[in-house]
Design goal:
Radius of gyration: 31 Å
Largest sheet: 8 strands, antiparallel
Strand content: 5-15%
Number of helices: 21
Helix content: 40-55%
Low-confidence stretches: 508-522
CATH topology of one domain: Palm domain of DNA polymerase
Shape: globular
CATH architecture of one domain: Alpha-Beta Complex
Number of strands: 13
CATH superfamily of one domain: B family DNA polymerase, palm domain
């Protein structure tokens, strides 16, 4: 127990050192003026509120609480790939322009702040009943297009928000300059500290819009939030018009845009070096059309891009024109942490072959090979573990479901149903809000995921079989079909989704665990190890390895014996590797039994799969008389 506790403490210490958690908290404390405890355990709204209170006090303002709650009415800028019919594969380079520090720069450029917003009775042209006119002229105010909100310009009064954001961005610029100098001089520790400092300042600046628009904010002001969104959309439309009308950028067109990012497709035949030059030129042209300090910057260049939907794309990203590129995935299931490792690896490898290596055939062959491996049962249980977060269920909700005080409608999702079931089985076990629950989907439940979800470690101990067809139809087929729809022909798609590799099944073996159903006590039929035909099973002895037909084929028995011997050797090698990995980390040394029961340990499930494969291979060799 002492060795185990020491190892856990070392793991936590190494993780904190790698993530630099202490430095991150300290730098955020320096930026916001809060205590270490407040930064560690309270949300971002508290940090922004602290900055406003400090600046407001120095400026002589009294900052009150929230007024009327509600929701923003202005939608963020969006060019929908499906609606605009721009979804698909692009072989020509795509330059991505980003509005640098988008919301902070909008606040500064237009002096947006609750302290600068003009009441309708104070706007230019308004005359009250006594004949008194407001003292403002049209030159003194800015009218936000789309929302109608009016704000005084900076020469009348500079808002608290613009002043705060100007200071934060200036401090971040200084930190980035010092960071570059520290890297040049080789001061790694100082560079790490400055990197955390500039990130903390960036986070504090970018939280301004969330603070002003969130319903939980102590200073929610919807007219300011709507004005910020509307001006952001206007900036994107202005940038598109400026770029597409520039003679130097003839042939460039926008294919996707969201919030503060624009994807410009370069003309066919553009080289990567030319794409970087055109992207920089587009950023310059767009910046010139925007009010200061708003500016567009070239964020990245894709040499090849697969655009599927809003916030769902993947591409070969280039850091410099001469680089080979690296895969960038956004929003696809390969990037979802709730997806099974098998699904993530399959999609990531297919995308790498398709986008980085530009080899459609290899990508399709790899997908077909992995589908065959899944449906034939060659994957271990650890590759099929999915997770779900308990974000909509509190501890009391789970307790009520355990006591049957709420219906099934209140408990949605396989992970939530499993959490309720596990707490019923073990009343001492408790779940907290946000906890991620791992689960696998087992066979025998008619594809009802709520009932088929099971704890991975429990399923491993009972040798329960996963529902491979459910994984194929519900978890693998749809993302593969979505990914290859824009690049593969109809014949290739038909072969991928319905070829011979999709019609394989798990081979029955004597080592397989018995079914939990009513007929679990009946022994499975013995089949020929070569052609899979039924063979006779004699009482008290293992069935024959080959059927009578295969025994007449010359060298068939020898070839099958060699094949199953090689399978045993391969399974024993994998088992030995898993045992060595376990022995290096568990606290029982080399002779004590393994006590690992961690659902996050891939070696645990790989070792169990190797054990089952060794047993199956030995049973098959016994059928040859060995």
């Amino acid at each position: 127990m002492a060795r185990y506790s020491l190892k856990r403490a070392c793991v936590v210490g190494n993780l904190m050192a790698r993530l630099n958690s202490v430095g991150e908290v300290v730098e955020m404390t320096r930026a916001t003026g809060l205590t270490l405890g407040a930064v560690s355990y309270q949300a971002q709204l508290v940090r922004t509120h602290s900055l406003l209170l400090r600046l407001g006090r120095r400026a002589g303002y009294v900052i009150g609480g929230a007024l009327d709650g509600g929701l923003t009415t202005q939608p963020p800028f969006l060019i929908h790939p499906v609606d605009a019919k721009t979804a698909g594969m692009y072989d020509a380079p795509v330059a991505v322009l980003d509005l640098a520090s988008s919301y902070p720069s909008i606040f500064i450029a237009r002096n947006l702040c609750p302290s600068t917003m003009v009441h309708p009775q104070d706007q230019p042209g308004f005359v009250d009943a006594s004949g008194t006119a407001s003292g403002l002229t049209e030159d003194d105010v800015f009218r936000c297009p789309g929302t109608g909100s009016v704000f005084v310009k900076e020469h009348i009064r500079k808002g608290i928000f613009p002043e705060l954001l100007t200071a934060l961005l200036a401090a971040r610029a200084l930190a980035r300059e010092a960071l570059a100098a520290a890297k040049r001089e080789g001061h790694t520790e100082q560079a790490a500290t400055l990197e955390l400092r500039q990130k903390s300042l960036e986070l504090a600046a970018n939280a301004a819009y969330g603070f002003i628009g969130a319903g939980a904010s102590p200073l929610q002001c919807l007219p300011v939030a709507d004005a910020c969104l509307g001006l952001g959309a206007l900036a994107c439309r202005t940038a598109i018009v400026a770029v597409e009308s520039c003679p130097d950028l003839a042939g460039c067109r926008v294919i996707y845009g969201q919030t503060d990012s624009l994807f410009f497709l370069m003309p066919q035949g553009t080289s990567t070096a030319q794409a970087f030059q055109l992207g920089q030129r587009a950023a310059t042209v767009a910046t010139e059309a925007l009010p200061r300090p708003m500016r567009m910057q070239l964020e990245r260049v894709f040499s090849r891009l697969l655009l599927l939907h809003v916030n769902r794309y993947a591409g070969c990203q280039l850091a410099v024109p001469s680089s080979s590129g690296e895969l960038l995935i956004k929003g696809l299931k390969s990037a979802w942490r709730q997806s099974a490792p098998f699904v993530r690896r399959l999609l990531t490898t297919c995308l790498h072959l398709l986008l980085v290596e530009r080899n459609l055939e290899r990508s399709l062959l790899h997908a077909a090979s992995e589908i065959r491996r899944l449906l034939s049962g060659e994957v271990d249980l650890g590759e099929l573990i999915m997770t779900g977060g308990l974000w909509r269920l509190t501890r009391s909700d789970i307790s009520s479901a355990v006591a049957a005080e709420v219906g099934e409608a209140e408990v949605r999702g396989p992970h939530a149903a499993l959490a309720v079931r596990l707490q019923k089985e073990d009343p001492g076990r408790e779940f907290v809000l946000g906890e991620r629950v791992p689960y696998v989907l087992l066979a025998g439940h008619k594809q009802n995921q709520m009932e088929s979800a099971e704890d991975p470690v429990a399923a491993l101990h009972t040798r329960a079989q996963p529902d491979l067809l459910l994984y194929w139809h519900n978890k693998v087929r749809t993302p593969l079909e979505e990914m290859f729809l824009h690049v593969a022909s109809k014949q290739q798609m038909s072969e991928l989704l319905g070829g011979a590799h999709t019609r394989v099944s798990v081979a029955a073996s004597a080592a397989a665990a018995p079914s939990r159903g009513a007929f679990g006590s009946f022994a499975p039929l013995a089949r020929c190890l070569s052609c899979r035909q039924t063979v006779a099973r004699l009482t008290g002895s293992p069935p024959a390895a080959l059927c009578a037909s295969c025994l007449t084929v010359p060298d068939r028995e020898r070839d099958e014996l060699l094949r199953h011997t090689a399978a045993l050797v391969h399974a024993e090698v994998r088992k030995s590797a898993c045992d060595a990995a376990h022995a290096s980390c568990h606290s029982g040394g080399l002779v004590q039994p393994l006590l690992c029961a961690c659902a996050d340990c891939p070696v645990l499930f790989a070792g169990a799969k190797a054990d089952a494969d060794v047993d199956a291979a030995r049973e098959n060799l016994r059928r040859f008389g060995w």
